[in-house]
Amino acid sequence: MVTDLFSLAGKKALVTGGAQGLGRMIAEGLLRAGADVAITSRKPDICAQAAAEMAALGPCLALPADLSTPEAAVDLADRYRQAAGGLDILVNNAGKTWGAPIESFPDKAWASVMAVNVQTPFKLVQQFLSELTASGLGGDPARIINIGSVAGVAIELLQAYSYSASKAAIHQLSRQLAKDLADRNITVNAVLPGFFPTSMTAHLRDADDAPTGALQGHIPLRRLGRPDDIAGIVVFLCSRAGAYVTGAEIPVDGGIVGCR
Ligand SMILES: NC(=O)c1ccc[n+]([C@@H]2O[C@H](COP(=O)([O-])OP(=O)(O)OC[C@H]3O[C@@H](n4cnc5c(N)ncnc54)[C@H](OP(=O)(O)O)[C@@H]3O)[C@@H](O)[C@H]2O)c1
Fold first, then answer.
1. What is the b/e burial string over 107-119, where b = at least 16 CB atoms within 10 angstroms of the residue's CB?
2. Is any ligand 1 atom within 6 A of the Cβ of residue 17?
3. What does the domain layout of the chain look like in residue ranges?
4. Active-site positions?
5. Residue 84 per-residue DSSP state
6. How far is the CA of 181 from the centre of ligand 1 (A)?
7. pLDDT at res. 41
8. What is the distance in A from the centroid of ligand 1 to the CA of 95?
9. DSSP state, 128?
């Protein structure tokens, strides 16, 4: 039935960094498709407020967490388990960037960026292996989606050295996990956003929230990403329609990667 091809009814999802930005767009998309969704934010009040707002779309649980250490990932997994039980969908979205000229790019921009963008996603996969294995069925696998970036594939003028390296790392880690977890009926894919209007790209947009000239010209489809663009690919991957896709790197970028 095409009508339920994209339904996520009965699925439980965790979206890190789901209170704002791309994570919020993803969380709202999953809720609209019928999933129960848990979100994280470092700020408990923002996390609670976002979950309360999204409760209009479906069950949404707030789990505040600063995911910059492996211990925090263990703690988040424990709290998730107590509050929600099983897990069908893990979206590793929380991410950190750091931009600076090469001459002054600081040492502290390496460990902190790699921790949030690579180590914590891996640690969460490790923590949730038993839940994801339990929920993964032959025709309906459990899903892990790691949010990468076009900056991990293409050379962007961001001077975000540790960020682009971390995103290339999460793409490769996704492929490795896809291979290793296929026997457990868990798919793993990397979604590579281009430029979306979030706080991470605020410095690339003008006062009207439009991309500045250089950025506009850089995107073949001549616009920034919209909520439906990122929600659509994640809902697809998590639904019956996406059950046969694993180990993929999917750019959602208006053609930056594909039209090079
Ligand atoms: N915007 C784009 O155009 C774009 C392009 C390519 C890739 N991406 C990727 O998309 C993801 C979301 O970014 P965004 O654009 O939505 O930027 P954003 O609005 O700055 O959001 C970053 C998210 O990561 C969370 N986060 C950051 N550090 C964290 C930490 N130590 N512990 C827990 N959560 C942390 C933030 O949560 P709180 O601040 O609520 O704690 C927030 O939800 C990132 O992985 C980013 O690399 C974005």
1. eebeeebbbbbbb
2. yes
3. 2-252
4. 163
5. H
6. 26
7. 98
8. 4
9. T
- Dump pLDDT digits (tens) for 84-100: 999 999 999 999 999 99
% of residues, the chain, pLDDT over 90: 91
- Closest CA to ligand 1's atom 44: 95
Ligand 1 centroid – CA 97 distance (Å): 8
E strand segments, 101-246: 142-147, 186-193
Work out the mean pLDDT of the chain and round it to a whole number: 96
Q: Which of 25, 19, 12, 17 has its CA nearest to residue 252?
A: 25
CATH 3.30.750.44, applies to 2-252: no
Report pTM.
Answer: 0.97
Is 79 exposed, middle or buried, given 0-12, 13-18 or 19+ CB atoms closer than 10 A? middle
pLDDT digits (tens, 9 = 90+) for 191-236: 999 999 999 998 888 766 666 677 878 999 999 999 999 999 999 9
